[in-house]
Amino acid sequence: xxxxxxxxxxxxxxxGTTQRLAELLATLVPADxxxxxxxxxxxxxxxxxxxxxxxxxVIGRRQANLLPTAxxxxxxxxxxxxxxxxxxxxxxPVTTWLAQHRGHLRNVAFLCSLxxxxxxxxxxQMQMSAxxxxxxxxxxxxTDLRAGRDHALLDRFAHKIRDRLSxxxxxEWSI
Length: 175
What we know:
With 175 residues, the chain is an alpha/beta fold. Helix content is 44%, strand content 19%. Strands 1, 2, 3, 4, 5 and 6 form a 6-stranded mixed sheet that branches. Helix 4 (119-130) links the parallel strand 5 (108-114) and strand 6. The two termini are 18 Å apart. The model has no long low-confidence stretch (mean pLDDT 92).
């Protein structure tokens, strides 16, 4: 009998939406969950000033100044990375974390929350930062949240993650 795949969900959230999605996904997969934190503290990105700063960081392609994380992603079979989408880009704390762990991530899946559109570009940017093609992706829009479709989207995403990891495990055993 094989042990279930170990999954870590790493997320960044400016307003709390992405964090709530990550926590819900963690109950569905199941997975350990860790929030990325910046040295400047959460107030750094709050309110209108924080929103403008966040957009400026994306446009300027600035790296975030992250605090160390508690979980070692190399110890997990898969890492799900959750980000808000800002100006069709992943949040700088996420791209910074992915770049820092490039080469140490076996399997990744990407989750994003967004106001309207831009998930494809954000997923592409995350893949470039990680240096790994995701096993699956999921975008949850503000419209999905208002319509109550987020839970169903995350449930399908959790099933895809588990199914793809199961297939990858069986391929490893057959080699």
